[in-house]
UniProtKB/TrEMBL annotation:
Source species, domain of life: Eukaryota
Similarity-based family: Belongs to the ICR family.
Coiled-coil region list: 411-517
Record keywords: Coiled coil
Membrane-crossing segments per the record: none
This protein's name: Uncharacterized protein
Organism: Hevea brasiliensis (Para rubber tree)
InterPro entries (alphabetical): ICR
Region described as Disordered: 43-113, 124-143, 339-363
Organism phylogeny: Eukaryota, Viridiplantae, Streptophyta, Embryophyta, Tracheophyta
Biased composition (Basic and acidic residues): 82-111, 348-363
Amino acid sequence: MRSTVKIYPRKSTFTHHRGLHGGLSLPAMGGVSGGWHRRLQCQAGSSEVPQRKSPATPRTARQLKIPGSDSDSLSPNPTSKTPKDKSPKVPERRSPRSPATEKKRPSRVSELESQLVQLQEDLRKAKDQLNTSETWKRRAQQEAEDTKTQLLAMSAKLEESQQQLMELSTSEDVLVQELRKISHDRDKAWQSELEAVQKQHSFDSAALASAMNEIQKLKGQLEMVAESEAAQTKHAESAHAELQGLRMELTETLSLVEKLKIDLSDCRASEAQALQLVSKTQKQLETANATAAMLRSDGIKAMEAYNSMSLELEQSKAQIRSLEELVSKLQSDLANSGVKNLLSPTGDVEHAGESGENEERNQLKEELNSLKFEVGQLRSALEVSETRYQEEYIQSTLQIRSAYEQVEKVKLESGKREAELEAELEKAKSNIEELRANLMDKETELLSVSEENEGLNLKIEKNQPHERESELAMEMKKLEHDLAELKASLLDKETQLQSVTEQNEMLKMEVKKGELERSKVHDEAVTLAETAKAAEREALVKLGHLTEEQIIVAEEQHE
């Protein structure tokens, strides 16, 4: 009896699963299996002999819609045709195989071999499709690498990029799970279909085994696709790490900007201190000028005292001269009286002369005593004036010396402070130059980052929300505002530095002027001291002459 072959293929669609980056995953093998089952059904129907047409056993099978090469023409929810109800097979009508069917078995084997060849061709087509999908995967990988290179400059979008990367990783995991589930479901479907085919066609076991091998290959290819997606995930993680590095660089840049601001504030504070020191040195110069004026007035007072003392000395000298004249006159009178006594002839005359002489002697003694008293008073007055002059001279010399030392001290302090101010100015200039260089570097970095961000904004405009773009624009505006403030502060710093240099030049001129005045005061003090010394020497000479004259007068009186 001739056997009938009834194949009920499972309807499947040739679907393309779009990958993460626009690539294609492996196509379903339903089209291949559907075409193979359809050819088996057609050949089985054509091999039947028209001698046995039994109306009681209709041969109906579900027809399979074969998908075309284009996956876009398929509907997303295909409906499978319901197979017609099979009429029950009547066992009484089964007859033993006829010799004609036995003769047609080799022809069926050849047909099955041709079907196997056709199946291999379909499998090769599937391999080609897999190769195309691999090319799409490589292209997607290349696009992912391009995206990674583009993401290097997205320093302002780190948080949302991290969220997007997490979402992408979760979506990739979900996609891998879906692919594995689909492959698992397809494997189950294929196994069920193959088991049904094995139950119905035990003689096609070799073909089914080869089909299973191809299925295993497809599984390996699916695993390779999953591995490639895992590699893409790793690339995304590396891109995330690079974005974290860019975020750290951005924080370092912001910290450097804050440090530059702190340096500017420190420079301003140092300039304020320098101005305070300038005012302090000016006050010291004013005090030095006041002390010089005071010393000048003290010198004038000393000259006046010297003049008064010289007048007193002249007066005492005149008195001494008058006393000397008086003494010489008295001596001449005494000599004349002695001569008269020698020439007188009578005793009465002698007695009268002696009494007159005694009176004159007494008078002369009184005058000499009075002269000695006056000379003692003059000598004590001279000693007092001399001690007073020496004390005033010592005091004036001490004041001049202290003023000179104070002037030297002020000069040294002003020179030292001037050197410190010059060092601070040089340091401030170097700091400003360094700040300017850092500012230029940051400007170039910001320009490059802004250009890269503009390019990336044009490329990732589809994936990024408008809120993040507005935040990025606000951050860029903030950075530009900070840069403008830094430039303005730098200009203010330069103007302040210029004003400080001008004040320093003015201070140098005032210091030079003060030095000239101090040298002038010193010269005046030196000349005043020299004149005082000359006056002292002259007074000492006069006093020596006076004492010598007094000694001579005393010796003459003693004789």
